[in-house]
Structures are given as C-alpha cells and as structure tokens.
Specification:
There is one protein chain. Helix content is 24%, strand content 40%. It contains two helices and five strands, in the order αβββαββ. It has helices at residues 2-14, 75-96; strands at 20-23, 43-53, 57-70, 105-119, 122-136. The chain starts with a helix and ends in an 11-residue tail after the last strand.
Length: 147
C-alpha cells in the first residue's frame, strides 16, 4: 500500500514541470557530501517513513526533501536561487494538497529547512516537508472477539 501511495505522490509532484522527482535512498545521509548529480537539480526526494494503521484506514507518513544547489558565492545569485526554491515549495504544496487521484487524502505537515551550507556540490539548501497520506484499508477487522 505505501508503494502505490508513494508513486502517486511522485507523479503529483512531477506535474509541476522541469524537476527531478524520485524515491529517497539515503542520498542525504551526509548532507555535506550529497549523492546527487548536478543535472538532477532541483531534486525532490520522497521518503516513506512509516505508517499508523487502524481498523478502517491507514495513515502513511512521508518526508519530501527539496534540494537546490548553487555554485555561485555571489549573494545576489544565492538570493535568486533561494526565491526559486521558495516558489518551488509552494508549487509542491499545491500539487500535494489535492487527493492523489483517489489513492489517498493528503495532509501537509511541518515544513522546515534542514540544511543550508556549503557542500561538496556548492551552496546547498534542503527543505523537508512532512506529509501524511490517509487511505481506506479496504477491509474491516473483526472486533467481535474480545480477547
């Protein structure tokens, strides 16, 4: 179930346009040495972090990482890139604030900057948005046996 929902989130974000969106596989385990390619930027990574099931639905937790890098130390260029990433974050929120084609109902959680410093790739900023996708499980648990 989380895999289908994760793919729906990725597809929803891809509708924004010219960005790379894919699953997270530990590329940011050391943010000073990110395992990403320059031609992937800006890069959006989607990470399924767990779930919380109950009898009729499951809440699936995700982190959405938005990564942007500039090689310029010029403050004006860095500010322009910062404005671009803020616009991208708004576009991502808009794309995700809708139901995922009947796959799940999405609730946007906390968004925050988790890295803003020099890396081996340049001046890198990473924003993380928490997301909860709730979907019906499609079955009911039998609660008639009170053990």
């Amino acid at each position: 179930m989380p895999i289908a929902t994760q793919e729906a989130i990725i597809e929803a974000i891809k509708t924004i346009g010219n960005i790379t969106v894919r699953r997270y596989y530990g590329e940011l385990s050391d943010p000073t040495k990110p395992l990403i390619k320059d031609n992937e930027l800006p890069l959006i990574l989607v990470d399924c972090t767990g779930d919380d099931p109950n009898a009729s639905e499951v809440a699936i937790n995700f982190n959405i990482y938005t990564i942007h890098i500039t090689q310029s130390s010029n403050i004006t260029n860095r500010q322009l890139k910062h404005e671009e990433v803020l616009q991208l974050l708004k576009s991502i929120d808009k794309a995700l604030s809708l139901s995922l084609n009947g796959e799940a109902i999405v609730k946007l959680g906390r968004g925050r900057k988790i890295f803003d410093a020099v890396s081996t790739k340049g001046y890198m900023t990473i924003w993380m948005r928490q997301l909860i996708a709730t979907k019906t499980t499609g079955y009911q648990l039998d609660n008639s046996l009170n053990l």
